[in-house]
Amino acid sequence: MATAAAQRTAGSEADGAPDPVDTTAYQHAFDAAVAADERIEPRDWMPDAYRATLVRQIAQHAHSEIIGMQPEANWITRAPSLRRKAILMAKVQDEAGHGLYLYSAAETLGTGRDELLDKLHSGRQKYSSIFNYPTLTWADVGAIGWLVDGAAITNQVPLCRCSYGPYARAMVRICKEESFHQRQGYELLLALSKGTPEQHAMAQDAVNRWWWPSLMMFGPPDDESQHSAQSMTWKIKRHSNDELRQRFVDICVPQAESLGLTLPDPELRWNEERGHHDFGPIDWTEFWEVLKGNGPCNEQRINQRRRAHDEGAWVREAAAAYAAKHTGSAGGTGHETGATRA
Ligand code: 3HC
Question: How far apart are CA 103 and CA 121, in angstroms?
Fold first, then answer.
């Protein structure tokens, strides 16, 4: 941000110092930086509402990554081959890594991971609606890769150009990994689709169940999206929910044809005039019910997350104890120095 250095010198919200001067000049500098497509960095002045919006979105995104590990981890022990098991384990581990990058990005805004996890566990922050659906068969692993990760990429590639630097940079790596996830799902579904009639039917059933929830991942329709307009003005979001949803439908239609699978929407057809596919109405009642906690797996997912957190307490304590010991070693008496001497 062009005037960031001057702002830092004058004091900023980020370092907690009381602002001695009128913030109007800062606001103008912030607006100019956003208009010029410059990145806002952690120590730059930013409006409180911009910071709060980023924390809300990044936290929800981070929570989605770690809750999203559950439906697929459900199939690790039942993967049909060593190759499939290795791929699935790598993918689930990637999701944990994505959570890590995103919680770290939120930390740069002054919000610690403990606080965010506490909000997730107590239901004060959301995670993506999609992870409240069950993975009933092995084909669901393919459908999640193709559709859920495909939707995530469509939504997240524009976030690589988000105005907030740490979030944008985290998204670059996440998108590369999501791209691999999407391809493995497609390849898995293709193998099933071209397999026995039973395997083909299993793939079709999975696509039937995951298609509509995947379209809901993009959020409510634009006229009901509470945050879109402001987030787009701030260039946190670059496209509206409906624009990205339409882009995703247009991408999926030819891919479904190549897979030999049918998308479960009788109203899906190419509209020459619009240059896009028309599609049938989304059941928004279902979406809002899932957000309220009434989806098929909401309770299971959050209970499992709380259990994993509690059972992992000893790891956090051990890591904190090690870090404290390590910090104490800075003077030359600690473990690493000793190891070097040995
Ligand atoms: N699931 C749960 N909540 C949703 C939602 C969804 N699919 N879509 C919207 N919402 C919530 C919003 O969070 C908001 O509630 P809040 O005020 O309590 O936060 C409310 O519904 C209204 O929606 P808006 O359109 O106004 O909200 P946004 O402007 O934040 O847009 C979004 C929603 C498009 C999801 C946006 O937040 C976004 O792009 N987030 C980053 C991407 C992300 O979170 N992806 C998660 C997908 S899963 C994933 O990435 C894991 C991968 O491994 C597949």
Answer: 15
